[in-house]
Specification:
This protein starts with a strand and ends in an 8-residue tail after the last helix. The protein is of the alpha/beta class. Helix 2 (46-57) runs antiparallel to helix 8 (178-187) and helix 4 (78-92) runs parallel beside helix 6. The strands form three sheets. The protein has a three-stranded parallel β-sheet with strand order 1-2-4. The protein has a three-stranded parallel β-sheet with strand order 6-7-8. A two-stranded parallel sheet has the order 3-5. The chain has helices at residues 10-23, 46-57, 68-71, 78-92, 106-109, 118-124, 159-167, 178-187; strands at residues 2-3, 28-32, 35-36, 63-65, 75-76, 101-105, 126-131, 147-151.
Length: 195
């Protein structure tokens, strides 16, 4: 599951759980973006986003967090993320023993034709676009069977809304896991954020 996770919230966790259930996934690897190539705003430092993701996912044995994008120099491209994760998996297992899925927001997936090496992404994983109820699911125009769109109940929560609430001094309780809320307060994240 790729994303900026700035910050990670319950909507991300519910989406990962729903997709894991729907596709009978043994694990979901959260990969916080290192340097997002497509974001115009400055993101919170990668180490903070990585550690918040570790805190948020710790209670679910199906979830783990990878530093693959945080530790790689240069902009983060999904095709590189998948290649690096698959190479690490192949070093420990028979490479053809796993089916790969890439989970991300349906809004981001709608723009996949503009991503770096979209054909390479499609070759490496089945794409899963998650969205909130009532949001129009847009077909990104990919070949049949390459993408699955899933409506997720808790995705009405958004990271940008959480950043705005923190900047305005409003509570974020129950929008993010308690440990993430504490991390944000302890490190003063988003206090002066206008994004």
């Amino acid at each position: 599951m790729g994303g900026t996770f700035d910050p990670i919230h319950h909507g991300h966790l519910v989406a990962a759980s729903e997709v894991a259930h729907r596709f009978d996934l043994q694990r979901v690897i959260f990969t916080p973006t290192g340097i997002p190539w497509h974001k115009t705003r400055t993101t919170t430092p990668g180490e903070d986003r990585y550690l918040m993701t570790v805190i948020a996912t710790a209670a679910d044995t199906r979830f783990e967090v990878s530093r693959v994008d945080i530790d790689r120099d240069g902009p983060t491209y999904t095709v590189d993320t998948l290649r690096d994760l698959q190479s690490a998996f192949a070093a420990e297992h028979a490479p053809d023993t796993a089916e790969w899925f890439f989970i991300t927001g349906a809004d981001a997936l709608a723009d996949i034709v503009g991503w770096h090496d979209p054909d390479g992404i499609i070759e490496r994983a089945h794409l899963v676009g998650v969205t909130r109820p009532g949001h129009q699911l847009t077909d990104p125009g990919l070949p049949e069977g390459v993408v699955t769109m899933i409506e997720i109940p808790a995705l009405a929560i958004s990271s940008s809304d959480i950043r705005t609430r923190v900047a305005a001094g409003k509570p974020i309780d129950y929008l993010v896991p308690e440990g993430v809320s504490r991390w944000i307060r302890k490190h003063g994240l988003y206090a002066g954020d206008n994004s």
